[in-house]
């Protein structure tokens, strides 16, 4: 069986058959090569103008489309695969840890090396944080990290002969090798969203039920952290929020025709998106962005009560400053104080006499301690003195 003709062969065939010239054929069918593999549409950063919806600096993005109250997206800064300015894990972990504890989901301790590693890392996209959290919740629980070995070593040290104590550095080296070879570590080291996603599927001890419960908090935490450093994402949140009524103007829908878990199973231009009853998927990512937008916008708008409190505090401060100004004008800078120096000295003497006995006598030395531990200590001291006195007397 003969192999299909090469691209040059197709050029010749099309030209001989009266078709387009070879260079036109090549331009129409061949992707532009830039030295790297072309990324999928949902991970590309596009900024071409379109009628669909707003984008960078008030422009329009071809990855966003209005459907009534719904804002459909596929790609754009709303995508977990969108690579922009990296965000530090420390901006996402506080919210995540609080939510995991509220949901009663087991996770490494707040002071663990696993949490420290998550907080120190700079994540290139939401997908990397999401997949790293899979390893954080499921894989790292099987690797006894370094602090555990130190604790075990300290426990063995108590009441054991030195020859029987295992060398903790053997365990540390082994754990370090496990840690750096883990899927969690590989996810942090990768710079390709697609590779990161494939690594996440290999997370050991993965539990679908626990992940379904935890994943919403994971994505919201990442979205909040991303909005802090990515103006494109924060602008979308601001444009979809009604600041007057302090509520959403639009709700987000991930219009992925193939994803029926995080998306709705419909294309971005599909008019069925207008009717939620016609959605074919759960739209988890859209709901996460709804909540992230609410948290992002409301924490930046001071509540009316708080504003009123600030106003009242300023008024009180102004009144106090005015009273002080009148006193200074009347008495000068050395305005009369409410308490004189003699009063303070008298109070000090009374306090000293009350706490330590009257100065000059030794009553304060006879004060009895109240804490049981001190009482026991003093009783032992007195008992020891009596025994010493008795031994001295019997010796004479």
Could you explain how this protein is built, in words?
This protein is mainly alpha-helical. Helices cover 52% and strands 5% of the residues. Among the domains are: 87-298, no CATH class; 341-382, no CATH class. It has 15 helices and seven strands. The radius of gyration is 36 Å and the shape is flat.
Helix content: 40-55%
Shape estimate: flat
Q: Gap between N and C termini, in Å?
A: 124 Å
Mean pLDDT: 74
The radius of gyration over CA amounts to: 36 Å
Strand order of the largest sheet: 1-2-7
How many strand elements?
7
From the helix content, strand content and strand pairing, which structural class follows?
Answer: mainly alpha
Low-confidence stretches: 1-7, 13-59, 148-154, 354-367
Largest sheet properties: 3 strands, mixed
Order of helices and strands: HHEEEHHEHHHHHHHEEEHHHH
What is the beta-strand fraction? 5-15%
Question: What is the overall number of helices?
Answer: 15
Topology:
Blueprint (H helix, E strand, L loop, with lengths): L6 H10 L5 H8 L34 E4 L2 E4 L13 E2 L4 H10 L10 H8 L1 E2 L2 H14 L6 H12 L10 H13 L2 H7 L3 H8 L7 H22 L1 H9 L1 E2 L4 E2 L2 E4 L29 H15 L5 H28 L9 H16 L15 H24 L1
Parallel strand pairs: 2-7
Antiparallel strand pairs: 1-2, 3-4, 5-6
Helix pairs in contact: 1-2, 3-10, 5-8, 5-9, 5-10, 6-7, 8-9, 10-11, 10-12
Features:
single chain; 396 residues; mainly alpha; NADAR domain-containing protein
